[in-house]
Amino acid sequence: MSIEDQYHRYLALTGSPEAAATLVLAAAQSAPSGVLTPPAIAKQLGCRASSVVAWIKSGQLKASNLSKSNRPRYRVQAEALAEFLEKQEPRPRVKSTRQRRKVSRF
To answer: Is the torsion defined by CA of 83, 87, 17, 93 positive or negative?
Structure first.
């Protein structure tokens, strides 16, 4: 699938050109390297490494554990990340409902 095809597919899913471009870039950046760590994936996607580990533990993102001890050392194949990104439906950004406090001037 070409980058243009991916963009149009993500654009149809999200309805947002910015979100579609972000997803295409994340998929394109993850493609060249074969094996990725959760922090590297988090940096590419703009989220926390703990979120990536949660996706791995829940089974949404396929990964291998290279550790023989209690502390996991996950590695994710680029193909598994691309598959995960294709399955994801981006959530629309919710505008903050927090109101700023007005400061009165004397």
So the answer is: negative
pTM: 0.56
Assess contact for 49 and 38: CB atoms under 8 A: yes
End-to-end CA distance of the chain: 63
Q: What is the pLDDT of residues 18-46, one digit of tens each?
A: 888 888 877 776 554 588 999 999 998 88
Ramachandran bin of 46, using left for φ above 0, alpha for ψ from -120 to 50, beta for the remaining angles: left
Identify whether 100 is part of a domain.
Answer: no
Decide if 84 contacts 41 (C-beta within 8 A).
Answer: no
* 40 within some domain: yes
CATH number of the domain encompassing residue 21: 1.10.10
Q: Which amino acid is at 60?
A: Q
